[in-house]
Design brief:
The chain is α+β, with helices and mostly antiparallel strands and about 750 residues long. Helices cover about 30% and strands about 20% of the residues. The strands form 11 sheets. It has a 4-stranded mixed sheet with strand order 14-9-8-17. It is rod-shaped, with a radius of gyration of 44 Å.
């Protein structure tokens, strides 16, 4: 093996270490995960902001974009943010800025936008070179005290600037505006709330530090979304969500019924759920109409202007509006679920899930820290000013000497410090005085200011020693926030109504299927279809060559079909699922699980509460309720157990009389009372008629008073004198009357 020595400077530079790939990847992935969690996705519990939002607001403040000042181009703001504080893509930063300005996305906007900032339809904002922005009063409240050493600052990514670690946050932004984000292995989802209710809960928590979450929920009954709607979550579920910090809230659109006269009406939707795009919602409802998934709805029209107005037109005046909306809530985004996962960074920058009380307490603790730091900073400023004023007073007491030193001395600063025992700051202040300040009145003002500052300093020192006094001061600040932003006006009023949990409605199937007349046609070879309308003459219907009509039934699209096969099974089919009548239809065997060795022997409409008579070729049978034969699967439901050999099901007839007529293949007719046949749900049944040769051909029920009827070609004959054929069940019977069908069939 040969080795080659690399020339100096051509090899890798720096410390090169042998490391297992798994260790290197895990170490780097952990760093990546921590960066995503701490610096991108999770908000801080104290100010409710993510780093990009905090940097946006701070950059706008540095640009002096106060609410009272003019607007500046968003491109200027984004440029400052990505150039000084947030080294990421301009599109991501601008998108974050746009969301802070959207009153339908943020309950209390932090950015006052001018221009196209998108809309509830889901349209994007205009490019940043066209839009302008400035801060709102809420954003100003978040940064109030930023210059008073209330929070820590850190260096920006390149070390050229300073940025705040957290905002002073006089406004409870985390719960007021909510937050959403996905980090590595964790996520956060916090809905917006009403600031008036939040302030009421905070004031209660200050007054009663041991207040429970259950008591706080009395003040905060649920989220307050900027787009309104109705909260229909169960109160117990809301309580559990706030107690654990995890859960969800069901939100429904707000609607009302508008009467149009003559019994007609329309439904108008005025508020849609939070974060639902109106245009996509209308498209979804239109799809339900086109796909006939909601036949009780005729049309949907968007009449929105600045306010949401979606008009729903029912199919007819008989449609129940409550039923219609219940189905729309199930099938569309008119009802959504907003999850609650209060996973945030605490004051120690540790991610954890907090409950409602923890979040409120964290905000109060932060405000207490801000108050203490602001008070200490103010005391330092007062001490500096008192020191300067003391130098001024010394100068006034020795004004002639001060003037002489300044005029004649080569180093007046050092001479002043030595002559009057002044420090450097006092000497500089005296040297920087204007001549107009030497008047007698100015000396009086200095003495007055000196006294006032001393009084203020005593008051502030007293505040630092008085913890209840500090909490009283914080309560006053929160009360002022409530008064400013929580008033019962258009901004502060609660927009989301707290409703009751919805009752599960029992919706009949026919209400969800468009009711239209159809004619069900089934051929001898087992091809089935549904032609529109009730056909008076089915002779014009075309079938495949060599095939012809076997069953023709007038029905509605809301009806169910019952099929009885030779294997003794019942199969259920919905009329609205049948193929259309333009072609030849589809084979029944492809729609149900029916083997090639079996065939359909009866086809009729299912009517609840009716009874059927089923019989096999062996002459056995029983009565069964139609409700007991409905099949839920393609494999059908076994009802009549047929025997071995050639025994198979041959008859299924509706019960419509008090007598039973049975005829066998041996052409023997027997009539006996219907009561002799038991009612069962499954089995072989009882013997209806005995045969020496052959088996059962047909069965019919009828009323003795009406006589027994049968078809012979196009004619129908009726026999009323039936004494000769009456007997007991299981007898053999005798030959039928003259003229009876040669096919041994009643119809």
């Amino acid at each position: 093996m040969s080795t080659k020595t690399l020339p100096p400077g051509s090899g890798p530079v720096g410390d090169v270490r042998d490391t297992r790939l798994a260790d290197a990847i895990s170490e780097r992935y952990l760093s990546y995960a921590l960066s995503i969690i701490m610096s991108r996705s999770l908000p801080d519990v104290r100010d409710g902001l993510k780093p990009v939002h905090r940097r946006l607001l701070f950059a706008m403040r540095q640009l002096k974009l106060d609410p009272a000042e003019g607007y500046k181009k968003c491109a200027r703001v984004v440029g400052d943010v990505i150039g000084k504080y947030h080294p990421h893509g301009d599109v991501a930063v601008y998108d974050a800025m746009v969301r802070l300005a959207q009153d339908f996305a943020v309950r209390y906007p932090l950015v006052d936008g001018q221009g196209n900032f998108g809309n509830v339809d889901g349209d994007n904002a205009a490019a940043m070179r066209y839009t302008e922005a400035r801060l709102t009063n809420v954003a100003t409240a978040l940064m109030d005290g930023l210059d008073e050493d209330t929070v820590d600052f850190r260096q920006t990514y390149d070390g050229s600037e300073q940025e705040p670690v957290v905002m002073p946050a006089a406004f409870p932004n985390l719960l007021a505006n909510g937050a959403a984000g996905i980090a590595v292995g964790m996520a956060t989802s916090i809905p917006p709330h009403n600031v008036g209710e939040l302030c009421a809960a905070l004031l209660h928590l200050i007054k009663f530090p041991n207040a429970t979450t259950a008591k706080l929920v009395d003040f905060i009954p649920g989220p307050d979304f900027p787009t309104g709607g109705i909260l229909v979550e169960d109160p117990a579920a809301i309580m559990a969500a706030y107690k654990t910090g995890r859960g969800g809230f069901r939100l429904r659109a707000r609607w009302n019924k508008e009467n149009l006269g003559r019994g007609m009406y329309q439904i108008v939707i005025t508020e849609i759920p939070y974060q639902v795009q109106k245009s996509r919602l209308i498209e979804k409802i239109a799809e339900l109409i086109n796909n006939r998934r909601l036949p009780i709805l005729a049309d949907v029209v968007d009449e929105s202007t600045d306010d949401v107005r979606i008009v729903l037109e029912p199919r007819n005046r008989s449609v129940d509006p409550e039923l219609l909306m219940d189905q729309l809530f199930k099938l569309s985004d008119l009802e959504t679920r907003f999850s609650l996962n209060m996973n945030v960074l605490d004051a120690d920058h540790t991610p954890r899930v907090m409950n409602l009380r923890d979040v409120l307490q964290a905000f109060l603790d932060h405000r207490h820290v801000v108050l203490v730091r602001r008070t200490k900073h103010r005391i330092e400023k007062i001490d500096q000013r008192l020191d300067t004023l003391a130098g001024y007073l010394a100068a006034y007491l020795n004004l002639d000497e001060v003037i002489r030193i300044i005029r004649e001395d080569d180093d007046p600063k050092a001479s002043l410090m030595k002559a009057f025992d002044l420090n450097e700051a006092q000497a500089d202040a005296i040297l920087n005085m204007r001549l107009r300040s030497l008047r007698r009145l100015e000396e009086i003002e200095i003495k007055r200011e000196h006294g006032e500052l001393n009084d203020e300093k005593k008051s502030l020192n007293k505040l630092l020693k008085d913890k209840p006094g500090r909490w009283k001061r914080i309560a006053g600040e929160i009360a002022e926030i409530k008064k400013t932003f929580g008033a019962k006006d258009a901004i502060g009023r609660r927009r989301t109504e707290i409703g009751e949990a919805p009752v599960i409605m029992d919706v009949p199937l026919e209400a969800l299927i468009e009711k239209e007349p159809v004619t069900v046609l089934c051929s001898e070879k087992g091809w089935i279809k549904a032609a529109k309308g009730h056909l008076e003459d089915t002779g014009e219907v075309k079938y495949k060559e060599g095939d012809r009509e076997r069953f023709a039934i007038r029905a509605e699209t809301t009806d169910k079909l019952l099929m009885f096969a030779t294997n003794g099974r019942f199969y259920t089919m919905a009329c609205d699922k049948l193929p259309g009548g333009r072609g030849f239809g589809e084979p029944v065997r492809l729609m149900i699980e029916l083997g090639n060795e079996h065939d359909i022997v009866a086809l009729f409409l299912w009517r609840p509460g009716e009874a059927l008579l089923v019989a096999s070729s062996a002459g056995r049978g029983f009565r069964v309720k139609t409700d007991d034969v409905v099949a839920q699967t393609k494999s059908g439901k076994q009802v009549l157990n047929v025997g071995a050999g050639d025994d198979e099901a041959v008859v299924c007839a509706p019960v419509s009389g008090d007598q039973v007529a049975v005829i066998g293949e041996n052409r023997k007719l027997l009539i006996f009372p219907l009561d002799e046949i038991p009612e069962m749900t499954r089995g072989r049944g009882v013997i209806l008629q005995r045969y020496k040769d052959g088996g059962l051909a047909d069965v019919k029920t009828f009323n003795m008073a009406d006589g027994l009827s049968w078809k012979t070609g196009e004619r129908t004959r009726t026999e009323t004198d039936l004494m000769a054929w009456q007997g007991k069940r299981a007898q053999s019977g005798r030959l039928p009357p003259k003229g009876f069908s040669k096919a041994n069939k009643f119809s």
